[in-house]
């Protein structure tokens, strides 16, 4: 899971979520990068420019799979992993805490790459990463579409929230 191709990134939103997380204007002004790419844009760009086969699961698709507190009721197993998943969902989306539905990032990428569900939309693009950090109006870590390149990267842009929710609960409960 990395990047934001056609949607806004999450660096500024994460930076501004709590006062203690404020890292300054180079973070708070970055509305284009996703956190995982932002923290090491040079490494991300090196991977993008390599010959490694690459399927990107960006925020574009992760933002389509949102779980709220009620989803925790589908987690019925009592082992430590299931208990942790249930607690995270309840803490992050329940009324006693942040109270926001939870977009699913790494679990979605894992389920897709393991073949648990199939993408409903993919796109092949030439991509690079902006590696220039600026103190204001920062775009460092932004995924950039290129007209050409040495190879395309597969970008997952659509999934079924229903299929993910069903499969994820089955895996956690098994």
From TrEMBL:
Tell me which domain of life the UniProt entry assigns to the organism this sequence originates from. Bacteria
Q: Which InterPro entries does this one have?
A: Inosine/uridine_hydrolase_dom (IPR001910), IUNH (IPR023186), Ribo_hydro-like (IPR036452)
Q: Name one GO biological process term.
A: purine nucleoside catabolic process
Keyword presence, Hydrolase: yes
Tell me which Pfam families the record gives: IU_nuc_hydro
**One GO CC term, this protein:** cytosol
Residue stretches making up the Inosine/uridine-preferring nucleoside hydrolase domain:
1-131
Keywords on this record? Glycosidase, Hydrolase
Q: Does the keyword Hydrolase apply?
A: yes
Q: Name one GO molecular function term.
A: purine nucleosidase activity
Please list every transmembrane segment annotated in the UniProt record, as residue ranges. none
Q: What is this protein called?
A: Inosine-uridine preferring nucleoside hydrolase
- Organism in which the protein naturally occurs: Pseudomonas caricapapayae
